[in-house]
Amino acid sequence: MSRRRVAVTGMSVLTALGSDVTDVWSRICNGESGISPIERFDCSEFRVRFAGEIKGFDALSHLQIDRKFLRRIDRFVEFALVTSDKAIRQSGFLEGDWDPFRAGVVIGSGIGGLDEIEYQHTRLFDRGPERISAFMIPKLIINAASGNVAVHWGIRGPSSSVATACASAVHAIGNATRIIQGGYADIVVTGGTESPVTPMGVGGFARANALSLRNDDPQRASRPFDADRDGFVISEGAGMLVLEDMEHARARGADILAEIVGFGMSTDGLHMTQPDETGSGAARAMKAALDDAGITEDQVDYINAHGTSTPLGDRAETLAIRSVFGSHADSLAVSSTKGHFGHLLGASGGIETVFCVQAIQNGVVPPTLNFENPGVDCDLDYVPGAARDLKVRYTLKNSFAFGGHNACLVLGSV
């Protein structure tokens, strides 16, 4: 029995560059950056004072919900609700249009409700344990995103959350794909959400020496694969997709944007924060995704790289690509869109999968912003300078994470 095909019928993003997919895509292709000084809190004493922050975000401007309800959810859940709502509506569904028992939700997040953790920790020590909010636990848990999306839309089918650090969203999309392929649901809302631009988030990643220190030039701080890269730029936001059984989508006349054709994953098993320097774990995940898709290496036209702008990670990813693709690696367009809006941790793969769909739809691959001089062993075509017209049949999406988690998707045109 052949497995069911998985269509993408809706998608949305929320980033420092905006919340409209078409507009954000245009700004990326035009080489714009959304990185800026942090305004949410006083960071004058911090080592890092900039981020991919979403300025002036108000969930009520996007959703018809009760203001009292917002007090019961964390910022990362607000992001998930806004983007899932937009993706579902783009797919053509309205309330009551689907069998709720045949619909599901799988959303990834690396950290969850960090805002709530920090706020309630302060209340605990300033005002005592009885002043901790009764809503603290359901606000901060990572599955609050998928749970609230399910409640908001009345979804009754498979629902879960994924927490594999920066690979969370791609793991979530891969799991959602498996749910549809296996016949457990016809429709799954999936992607990732993250809100780590908080004092503890910024301070913690800075202390881990993971962040760029270019406070004087934030828009040039994220420089994937460049010789002068010095760490990633922490960012917030969400990216969601609606995946659907292909036949189900066609039967209702849905606009099919792309197809998820392959999913692969692996684990380095070597270190909690450093990647395998040879890229062998990443290579295994890429190869597994290609095998799952049933395509050969030379059929891939574009790779949306994990490309975080870290010294070890970008080099390891490049070595992994060369290991998998051999001589075809020199013919590939490879770019990282993190130069434009930073690294959204567990949400990054959701947003970047949307951009893979955009590349397929528009016949354009986005540039790698701030790539000027190749780093050591970074010798691929990273699409420097400007977006490029390219017919994309298949694209590979890479996501790698602390803990050695590796996850890759293959998307194809329909």
Largest sheet: 10 strands, mixed
SSE class: alpha/beta
Strand content: 15-25%
> What's the helix-strand series?
EHEEHHEHHHEHEHEHEHEHEHHEEEE
Indicate the mean pLDDT. Answer: 97
Helix content: 25-40%
In DSSP terms (H or I, runs of 4 or more residues), the helix count works out at 13
Ranges where pLDDT stays below 50 over 5 or more residues in a row are none
Say how many strands there are.
14
Shape: globular
Please compute the radius of gyration using only Cα atoms: 20 Å
Strand order of the largest sheet: 5-4-6-7-1-8-14-13-9-10
Q: Tell me the span between the first and last alpha carbons.
A: 22 Å
Commentary on this structure:
- 58% of the residues are buried.
- The two termini are 22 Å apart.
- The protein has 13 helices and 14 strands.
- α7 crosses α13 and α10 (280-293) crosses α11 (311-325).
- The radius of gyration is 20 Å and the shape is globular.
- Helix content is 33%, strand content 19%.
- The mean pLDDT is 97.
- The strands form three sheets. Strands 5-4-6-7-1-8-14-13-9-10 form a ten-stranded mixed β-sheet, sandwiched between helices. A two-stranded antiparallel sheet has the order 2-3. It has a two-stranded antiparallel ribbon with strand order 11-12.
